[in-house]
Amino acid sequence: MEIAISILLAVAAFFFMEFVAWFSHKFIMHGFLWVLHKDHHIRDGRKFEWNDLFAVIFAFPSILFIYFGVVDGNSYILGLGIGILLYGLAYFLFHDVYVHQRIPILKNLSNRYLRATVKAHLEHHNPHAHYNFGFLIAPLKYYKEVFGKSKNAQVE
After folding, report:
1. 132 contacts 20 by C-beta, under 8 angstroms
2. CA 70, CA 66: separation in Å to the nearest integer?
């Protein structure tokens, strides 16, 4: 039973991180720490951005939960840390690798969910856009648009 609860906590932490991504992006990255995030909105091919510091900042809770979960033998805390870690990995693979191609792999991966979510993210980079949303779940209008098209239709 303890393992099942730990797995549920990991899944819950993963999905809760979507809220954390929305909140931190809207109020921190586009707020008082814009100085670190603004270079991410300037796509000039650099390998490293000031914005990358957020990955380090957001890794700390996961590292601490995993560490104390292992040291104290608390599988619940460990589950939370693993859920946060998995969200961070998903974020990195989707955002940095897939969307922005900072590491040129996953180029040919595509489906309607990915096309809709990528379109929403790229529109967020429009200097006149004021879209703020989470990371794995974009506003419904993007999914309606893409899922309303034929299965093989590409997003412009």
Report:
1. no
2. 6
Per-position DSSP letters for 28-54, written without gaps between them: IIIIITHHHHGGGGS-S--S--GGGHH
Tokens coding 67: 């560490």
**Mean pLDDT across the chain:** 86
- DSSP state, 71? H
Burial tier of 41 (Cβ tally within 10 Å: 0-12, 13-18, 19+): middle
N-terminal to C-terminal alpha carbon distance within the chain: 48
Which domain, by its residues, includes 116?
Answer: 110-156
Whole-structure pTM value? 0.83
Asked whether residue 22 falls in the same domain as residue 79, the answer is: yes
